[in-house]
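dumping this here so i dont lose it
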């Protein structure tokens, strides 16, 4: 590789790295799919099964941004800017055998490290909806 090409390749990779660090987490693209995959099964709209009305667990729906931000019967589950104090993030980081761990042990796979980081970053960046 001649030195100009090398310089251009190096410049491009530095640019990509910076761009990656600056890119914000996008709710619709990055976060809702995680919820749909791991949470909505239990945290969804009320439905009837075998003649009984099934309500979302803890009164929390996670099928849309607005429901997530509305929270559960116990209050907010996402505090913008404060992932450590947001149960939606915190409960996914508990030990798998912790009784409050989400999703509950044996009911669904735990979030991957990459998914937890997305969730953390999304809340840290202000828990905004997609534009
Ligand atoms: C298999 C069903 C199930 C799945 C899947 C599940 N949950 Fe839950 N979730 C529950 C139940 C049941 C409760 C109520 C626990 C209790 O009251 O002790 C709960 C409670 C919660 C609460 C506490 C609400 C509050 O304020 O009390 C949060 C936050 C939560 N879940 C987030 C999540 C997230 C995030 C996911 C996906 C990563 C998830 N859950 C997946 C069943 C589930």
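and the seq i came up w/
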């Amino acid at each position: 590789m001649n030195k100009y090409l090398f310089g251009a390749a190096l410049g491009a990779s530095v640019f990509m790295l910076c761009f990656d660090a600056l890119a914000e987490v996008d709710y619709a693209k990055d976060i809702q799919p995680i919820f749909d995959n791991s949470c909505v099964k239990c945290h969804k709209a009320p439905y009837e099964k075998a003649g009984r009305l099934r309500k979302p667990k803890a009164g929390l729906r996670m099928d849309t941004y607005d429901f997530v931000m509305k929270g559960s019967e116990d209050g907010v589950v996402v505090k913008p800017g404060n992932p450590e104090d947001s149960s939606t993030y915190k409960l996914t980081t508990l030990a798998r055998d912790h009784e409050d761990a989400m999703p509950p042990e044996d009911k669904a796979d735990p979030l991957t490290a990459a998914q937890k980081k997305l969730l953390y970053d999304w809340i840290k960046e202000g828990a905004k909806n997609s534009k």
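The two ends are 42 Å apart (CA to CA).
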